[in-house]
């Protein structure tokens, strides 16, 4: 099938990363993957949640939001009408879990790294772009904390990235844009480490159930895609 932007089935959208996008955050990046743009910022706080007090361990948590005109139709600003939506909670927890999977929290010490991911523009894959951008911002924040002497060693034990994959018109595709995601028979998100280990997989049949072989094809695409993404952001 021909993709809307002419990419091959296993091709990741163009990626750009602007480090130090915000002047005051310990780490920040503007992460662009195609027409999905996410601003990720990390704040280091000298406290931890109550369940970690006196443990010597640190914590990483995340917040996620889509700005009102990040999409074709204005998205109402969350929180003004009350509770945050379930999708937002899900993505925030995904980002936090993913980052904690590659960080030694004891080596971080009694600090909380609070990660804010704000989607400036959305064209599919906002949660996966947020995970990747959040990891890059976290790496920058860790470098700042080491330079300031607020931590004694690098607590990051592996690299991390995320990518979407799906089946559209019977074809397995990597890194879906919005039009592809909306038409997908199967929609999946993969979070993997640079060493090739799985952190999280989310895969959903949008209509009929799908076969194991189809899932395996998506997983292979995702592993290749994460390798491509990590190579690009490292350069």
From TrEMBL:
EC number(s) of the enzyme?
A: 2.7.7.56
The protein's enzyme class:
transferase
A Gene Ontology molecular function term of the record: 3'-5'-RNA exonuclease activity
Q: Which domain of life is it from?
A: Bacteria
**Record-listed phosphate binding positions:** 87, 125-127
Reactions it catalyzes: tRNA(n+1) + phosphate = tRNA(n) + a ribonucleoside 5'-diphosphate
Keyword Metal-binding attached? no
UniProt-listed GO biological process terms: rRNA 3'-end processing; rRNA catabolic process; tRNA processing
Keywords on record: Nucleotidyltransferase, RNA-binding, rRNA processing, Transferase, tRNA processing, tRNA-binding
A Pfam family of this chain: RNase_PH_C
Any idea where the Exoribonuclease phosphorolytic domain is? 11-141, 160-222
**Record bears the keyword rRNA processing:** yes
* HAMAP family (UniProt xref): RNase_PH
Q: How does it assemble?
A: Homohexameric ring arranged as a trimer of dimers.
Q: Could you tell me what this protein does?
A: Phosphorolytic 3'-5' exoribonuclease that plays an important role in tRNA 3'-end maturation. Removes nucleotide residues following the 3'-CCA terminus of tRNAs; can also add nucleotides to the ends of RNA molecules by using nucleoside diphosphates as substrates, but this may not be physiologically important. Probably plays a role in initiation of 16S rRNA degradation (leading to ribosome degradation) during starvation.
Q: Which NCBIfam families match?
A: RNasePH
The UniProt similarity line reads: Belongs to the RNase PH family.
Full protein name: Ribonuclease PH
| Species per Swiss-Prot/TrEMBL record | Dissulfurirhabdus thermomarina
């Amino acid at each position: 099938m021909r993709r809307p932007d002419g990419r091959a089935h296993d091709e990741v959208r163009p990626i750009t990363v602007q480090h130090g996008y915000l002047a005051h955050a310990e780490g920040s990046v503007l992460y662009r993957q195609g027409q999905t743009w996410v601003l990720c910022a990390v704040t280091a706080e000298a406290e931890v949640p109550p369940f970690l007090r006196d443990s010597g361990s640190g914590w990483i948590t995340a917040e996620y939001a889509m700005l009102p005109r990040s999409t074709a139709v204005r998205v109402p600003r969350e929180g003004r009408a009350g509770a945050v939506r379930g999708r937002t909670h899900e993505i925030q927890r995904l980002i936090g879990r993913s980052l904690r999977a590659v960080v030694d929290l004891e080596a971080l010490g009694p600090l909380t790294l609070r990660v804010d991911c704000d989607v400036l523009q959305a064209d599919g894959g906002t949660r996966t772009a947020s995970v990747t951008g959040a990891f890059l911002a976290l790496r920058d924040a860790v470098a700042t904390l080491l330079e300031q002497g607020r931590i004694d060693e690098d607590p990051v034990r592996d690299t991390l990235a995320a990518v979407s994959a799906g089946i559209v018109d019977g074809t397995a595709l990597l890194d879906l844009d919005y039009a592809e995601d909306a038409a997908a028979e199967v929609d999946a998100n993969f979070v993997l480490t640079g060493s090739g280990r799985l952190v999280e997989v989310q895969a959903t049949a949008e209509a009929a159930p799908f076969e194991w072989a189809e899932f395996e094809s998506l997983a292979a695409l995702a592993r290749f895609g994460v390798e491509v993404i990590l190579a690009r952001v490292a350069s």
